[in-house]
Structures are given as C-alpha cells and as structure tokens.
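Input (structure):
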C-alpha cells in the first residue's frame, strides 16, 4: 500500500492537486461511505467492511502524502 499511495501522491502532485490533512480525512471517509453504503458493501458482511476500510485508508494515505509533498515544495 505504501508504494501505491506514494505513486498516487506523486501523480496528484504532477497534476497540480493540493490537499490539506482535513481533506485527506474527508476523502477517506467518503470512500468508505461510497464503498460500504452506496455500493452495498455491507451486504458482504465483514469482508465488505474490511475492503471498504482498507480502500478508505489508502485514499487517506494518498492525499496526506500529497499534502506532505506540497509542504516540502514550500
């Protein structure tokens, strides 16, 4: 996960995306809600919960790393 979130953060930085820690948390929570509720992951029980949680954590890491890379450039 570390490798892919770093690659995603570098790609987001190249696109000029900016992010704050608050936005990273918000995007992670939205990803969980989307996967678990809107895409009916709750019907898969524990497996659906774990998939949604891990995906949300990956999104959080990606955007937090984007924030860190933007902070280094300042």
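Output (sequence):
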């Amino acid at each position: 996960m570390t490798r892919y979130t770093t690659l995603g953060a570098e790609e987001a930085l190249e696109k000029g995306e900016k992010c704050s820690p608050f936005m990273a948390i918000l995007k992670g929570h939205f990803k969980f809600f989307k996967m678990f509720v809107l895409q009916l992951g709750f019907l898969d029980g524990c497996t659906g919960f774990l998939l949604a949680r891990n995906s949300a954590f990956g999104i959080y890491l990606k955007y937090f790393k984007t924030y860190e890379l933007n902070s280094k450039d300042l």
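Notes: The first helix runs from residue 2 to 14. The chain has one domain: 2-73.
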